[in-house]
Amino acid sequence: MHHLKFLRGGLAVYTALFIAFLYGPFVVMGILSFQKGPEGGPQFPILEWSTYWYRHVLGFAPPSRVAPLPIGEALVRSLTLAFATMVVSTVLGTLTAQAFRERFRGSGLVFYLVVLGMIVPGVLLGLGMALLANNLGIDRNWWSTAFVLHVVYTYPFAFLVMLAIFNRFDRSVEEASWMLGVTPARTFRKVTFPMIFPGVLSAMLFAFTLSYDEFPRTLFTAGSDVTMPIAIYGTFAVEIHPNLFAFGVLTTLFSFALLSVYGILMALSVRRARMRATGIQEEIA
Amino acid sequence: MAAASVTQGAAARRRQLLLLAPGVIWMLLFLVLPLAMMVYVSFWTQTTFAIKPDLTTKSWEAFFSSTTYVEALLRTLRIWLTVLVITLLIGYPTALFIGQFVRDKTVQTVLLVTCVIPFWTSFLIRVLAWRPMLGKEGAINIVLMKLGIIDAPIEALLFSELSVIIGMVQIYVVFMVGPIAFMLARIDPSLIEAARDLGASAWTIFRRILLPLSLPGVVVGAIFVSVMVLGEFATASALSGRKVNLLGNIIVTQVGSLKWAFAAVAGVILTIVTALVVTLLLRVVNLRREL
Amino acid sequence: MMEIGGLSKSYDGRPAIADLDLMVADDEYLTLLGPSGSGKSTLLRLIAGLERPDRGRILLNGEDITHKPAHLRGLGFVQQNYALFPHMTVAQNVGFGLANRLVDPVTDPAELGRRVDAMLDLVGLSGLGGRMVSQISGGQKQRVSLARTLVTEPRICLLDEPLGALDANLRERMTVELRRIRETLGVTFLHVTGNEAEALAMGDRMIVLDGGRAVQVAPPDEVFGRPATARVARFVNAYNLLEGETRDGAFVSGADRLPLPAGVHARAYAVRHDAVEIGDQAPEGWPAIEGRFVTAEFLGSRVLYFFQRRDGGIIEVERHLSQSDPLRFAQGEARVLHWDPAAAHLFGEDGRRVDAAQGGRA
Fold first, then answer.
1. Would you tell me how many other CB atoms lie within 10 Å of the CB of residue B77?
2. How do residues A101-121 score in pLDDT, each as one tens digit?
3. How far is CA C16 from CA B37, B88, C70, C351, in A?
4. Which residues of B touch A115 (CB under 8 A)?
5. Per the CB < 8 Å rule, is B129 touching A163?
6. Partner A contacted by C84 (CB < 8 A)
7. Is C305 a residue whose pLDDT tops 50?
């Protein structure tokens, strides 16, 4: 029993180190984002603490030899693309998962066809789509060729999430609704959908995040109007500056804000349901 | 009546077909077709600035007779295997701790979310963040020198194969931890309890119960890590100073110089490698049943 | 009125319902008894339209509904697990069908509220309409499930082991309630159960399902008094069932020989628990078995005595305390168990009865 406690302690320390490994670069990035500008480079030592690079990212810094990040429009494009991808892949994922609730011939084939979308390395899909578009004479754009590939990538995730949700879904509730004379379509809207909504929400969150950060599939297919990750990739070729780190910190904060809104919304809906129920109980008592 | 029965069955089948059609058509048009196009184009004739649909195996011959390309293929395989083994070795103990030693569901979730939070920063920025860590004047060298472990900074940390491997391991190890922790957490605690009551040692419990039951998680994690590492090019170009070329980098460079047929050849080879790796891993476990 | 003819359904080649015929009258309480695996749930789901039959047809008031979708059949279905809508209140659950059904939906909120309240009154849930379904007890959920179905005025109400998940006390109360509610509304109930006491207590008529066939359709007292097959005798849990064969005009089971009427060839021999007498010696010509006393079980108004036969089998004897005082036996005491030859139920090779026994209570 004692050596087990020892093992447990050892593993706890190990896990802490592991998490430090995951966060190490972040901490360094966070520190360096406060480097003096515009002279300071993306390395130690810190010449002087300053918020110069944050102002630089947001466009408040006076022009200097460091070119501003081309983020304004790219950010809008990435968010639009992520939103559209989220909607389409969640709808597709829900439809396919709904079909998988009944057994059918060839289900294994369809399953692997869909899952293939998340397994094929992105750079291959990007290449294939670019070749296809070139030879068909289609222009490559972030809202066309890149968009369809984003859905190819996120739809399998949405499908798997919805499949897991439906696996745990008690279908006798739907049968109860049909037996009351309610059509299958209306049953889906009034009974099934409200019950699977939390699952749909996480499928959406998944799709949005994946698309927002998608890069290998977008590289060859976005054309000249780039998305956020492509804009960052563009800076790889040239010298990097701490403005990228400041931008990294800002996007992380933005992601946290988004996640917090999601969390608060979920908590609120749970609390509202509980409050309504207890309120009524008090009324009766 | 038999006719009525057929109609009923047909209606149900039509409904199912209607549900399946959008997704299947999408995948056929935008997944299968581009991949098929890539295979097709790999046999086209490459001229300096254009490709012509005259079928030839020239691009293939060019690929395999070039040491640069063959080396890139071998390097890709080497780095993939290294990263896979390291992510498994350093990921498994963490997964074991989260899945088996933390019994409180909330703490489990908090730990997993802690591991996932880095994903909320752009992948490319995460890669770049390694530069100030590993550089000659980077954090690691500074700390090691301050501690007196080394006298001169280790230069091999950045712009080398090592830096690419370190970067990839940090970025992808979570994909290994997640599925393994998930499988371990699903194991019925009474099973472990019973084994302990029967006098099994910690090692026996690990070898006979935990390891086999977590194997599907290992395989799923290995598939995730494999397909992502095999298709990698960004980490290599950011952390190796363009010294380490993977198959992915070859594709990007060739596309950049409009050598589409060469890019397609590299793409097909990468597809075959990925397919082989995934098929091999799927041999070990039925992915669909485990989900 | 519902008529079912030649209904068949198999899963992966194994028949669940095999060539079943059945007639359900208006305004009756019909119970469907069968062991697990007898196909009783399948039959209910076929009638409901939740499964498609392989063959056969279902007529409802003369109309063929065999291939009609479930939501157009106008039947009610009360599930074993209640299947309430978890995101709605009790009142919303009950009103859901009325408000959302395709045919003749109730759109006026006042009318809807009135009908929901009336139904909640009928099932004894007045005042609970505003609760979420997660906040009511199992028995109350059962009532909500029933109310939700009955408020839509189904032509026939199918109940799938509706009392299965309730504790014994509640079950007894709901038994009475179900009968009262059904009689108030005059709707036909088709109640599936695996519990023979429930089937006996509830139904006007009883269907015994075995191996996908209706082996007996009769009023409960007839099913108990004259089981149609040896297996029915076993399901109703009121018979000592001996297996053996006929030799020289007698039924031979282990070490025991029981006289048979002339010309009867039996493979199974049943005698009701309460038809067996305990004594020192059997009257001339009466079937008798020697048994050693094992134990007795007091069940309020009656006592069950357990005797072990020479070859190890157990014979149960039931005595109603209104008829006699409890008997006392010593452990292992040998008694002669005997009964009127007329109380014997005999079943042939195919399990069907072959005798002319009078049945009834001894």
1. 15
2. 888 888 889 998 998 998 899
3. 51, 49, 20, 20
4. 287
5. no
6. yes
7. yes
Q: Is B1 on the interface with C (CB under 8 A)?
A: yes
Best residue of A101, A103, A173, A180 to probe chain C, by most C CBs closer than 10 Å? A180
The alpha-carbon gap from C257 to the nearest alpha carbon of chain A, in Å, equals 53
- Decide which of C333 and A275 is more confident: C333
Assess whether the previous peptide bond of A38 is cis (omega < 30° from 0): yes
The per-residue pLDDT of chain A, averaged, comes to 85
- Considering the domain architecture, whether residues B10 and B118 belong to the same structural domain is answered as no
Q: Smallest CA–CA separation between C66 and chain B, in Å?
A: 9
**Residue-range domain boundaries for chain A:** 1-66+241-285, 72-229
Interatomic CA distance for residues A221 and A226, integer angstroms:
10
Chains touching B (3+ CB pairs < 8 Å) = A, C
pLDDT tens digits, A249-275: 888 888 788 778 877 877 777 666 666
Residues C79, A175: C-beta atoms closer than 8 Å: yes
CATH of the domain at B149: 1.10.3720.10
Contacts of residue A224, defined as CB under 8 A and 6 or more positions apart, other chains included, come to: none
User: Which one-letter amino acid corresponds to residue C228?
Assistant: A
| Homologous superfamily in CATH for domain A72-229 | MetI-like (1.10.3720.10)
Q: Which residues contact C238 (CB under 8 A, 6 or more apart)?
A: C196, C224, C272, C273, C274
Encoded amino acid at B151, one letter: D
Q: Considering only CB atoms, which chain C residues are within 8 Å of B6? A: none
Fold of C2-225: Rossmann fold (3.40.50)
pTM of the model: 0.77
- pLDDT higher than 70, residue C111: yes
Question: A-chain residues within 8 Å CB-CB of C127?
Answer: 284
For helices C138-150 and A172-179, angle between their N-to-C axes, nearest 10 degrees: 30
Structure tokens at B95: 């997964």
Testing the interface with B: which of C55, C65, C67 to mutate, by most B Cβ within 10 A? C67
Q: Is the pLDDT of residue C356 over 80?
A: no
Which structural domain range is residue B236 located in?
Answer: 65-290
The whole-angstrom separation of Cα C268 and Cα C347 is 5
Determine whether the interchain pair B29/A148 forms a contact, defined as Cβ–Cβ distance below 8 Å. Answer: yes
For B26-48, how does the pLDDT look when each residue is reduced to its tens digit (9 = 90+)? 999 999 999 999 999 999 988 87
The burial of A108, by beta-carbon neighbours within 10 Å (0-12 exposed, 13-18 middle, 19 or more buried), is given as exposed
Residue B50 lies in a domain: no
Q: What interface predicted TM-score (ipTM) does this complex get?
A: 0.84
Domain count, chain B: 2
Cα–Cα distance measured from residue B115 to residue A277, given in angstroms and rounded to the nearest whole number? 36
Q: In this structure, which CATH number among 2.40.50.140, 3.40.50.11690, 3.40.50.2300, 3.40.190.170 belongs to the domain C240-347?
A: 2.40.50.140
Binary contact (C71, A182; C-beta < 8 A): yes
Kindly determine whether residue A111 and residue B238, on different chains, have CB atoms separated by under 8 Å.
no
**Whether residue B143 is found in the same domain as residue B225:** yes
Interface check C107 vs A, CB under 8 A: no
Q: Is residue B52 situated within a structural domain?
A: no
Q: Is C52–B7 a contact, with Cβ atoms under 8 angstroms apart? A: no
Q: How far A180 CA lies from chain C's nearest CA (Å)?
A: 5
Buried b (16+ CB within 10 A) or exposed e, C275-313: bbbbeeebeeebbbbbbbbeeeeeeeebbebebbbeeeb
Residues B103 and B196 in one domain: yes
Minimum CA–CA partner of C99 in chain A = A182
User: In which residue ranges of chain C is CATH 3.40.50.300 found?
Assistant: 2-225
Q: Are residues B73 and B143 in the same domain?
A: yes
- Which 25-44 residues of chain A touch chain B by CB within 8 A? 25-26, 28-29, 32, 42-44
Domain shared by B160 and B97, yes or no: yes
pLDDT score, position B6: 40
